[in-house]
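If you are new to this repository, start here. Below is one unmodified record pulled from the training split, so you can see the exact layout before writing a loader.
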Amino acid sequence: MHRLDLNVRMDSALNAAVVAPTDPSAPQAASPAHAAPVLAIVVPTFRERDNVAELVRRLDATLGGIPWEVVFVDDDSPDGTADAVRELGRSDPRVRCLHRIGRRGLSSACVEGVLATSAQTIAVMDADLQHDETILPEMLRAIRERGVDIAVGSRYVAGGGIGEWDQGRARISRLATRISRVVVPERLADPMSGFFMVRRDVFMESVRSLSTLGFKILVDLFASSPRALSFVEVPYRFRERHAGESKLDGRVAWDFGMLLLDKMVGRWVPVRFLSFAMIGGLGVIVHMGALTVLFRTGLSGFGTGQAIASAVAMVFNFLLNNALTYRDAKLKGAAKVRGLLVFMLVCGLGAVANVGVADWLFSEQRQGWVVAALAGILVGAVWNYTTSSFYTWGRRGR
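And here is the target side for that same chain:
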């Protein structure tokens, strides 16, 4: 009965929209393609040119009778994805393009896409056609009729499935699901799903608290909400990618870890600083390894070996921070070379600050050597982080 009522209301709204007014001077009623969208589908893209037209075709076939629009949020894809979307939009006004330049990241793209639409219900899905668009009407009914906050496309409830995944990917997914229990409800079977639908008012309650880190915005939403969210899981079977290549790599695991850290301790310590500090710790290991090779094997004296090891560690730290900590502002080409030089200068000054503070505390303030050393390390790390964020990877650096 509820499903019938929803269909009747939608059909009535559409019929009213296409009836021409009897007064020629009156404003023309919107056609279904121009009606205010009931549902917006936000699709983050990067190198998905060959998928966007097929996705729009499938959405059109699935969402008959529902006023909808699709917002593709493209991170300046080199394959011309944004141009392909704009071409579709010239003949179908339901297709919109949000072209981001100088910003990267799936979660942040989803946030900007949601904020760019006026629809009161928003779905998030991938462009590669692995998510089953045919369950979108059922997800919409769950939100409109049952009043839940979020409808999740789930691979891990009865009727769902992970498709042709190999055992390794399946194990990783199950492990990530278990780890996510730290910040999401135990009852949610598929917190790692990238396919869900949410009411705008629910999203806006959390938007200012979202981390926008990595790929798992659903986890972010549940962890950031000021209240417990009601949800329903709608089963679907994960499909093979239609065209293009997967974006999954080792950095996804790092991003997921940073997201969980941010939800747990981000209110006290910026998670980007934690990432920067952890990479700095790895840099110490690299430094000592390089020094051991150079000095203990007789390839150089201690002073020369120390200088070379310091340079090697700085290059290591820069490359890893560029790939992970500042992935959303990643430097390339000439900007990468300039960034490395600035980073080495910044870290050199940080080393001076480190030694100066430690020596002052130990010699002048009579602090123990451990306390003095740790204080120096902290001052140096904060200096390196803040100045690198601004001069190396910030707007000025780019």
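Two things worth knowing about this chain: The two ends are 58 Å apart (CA to CA). The first strand starts at residue 39 and ends at 45.
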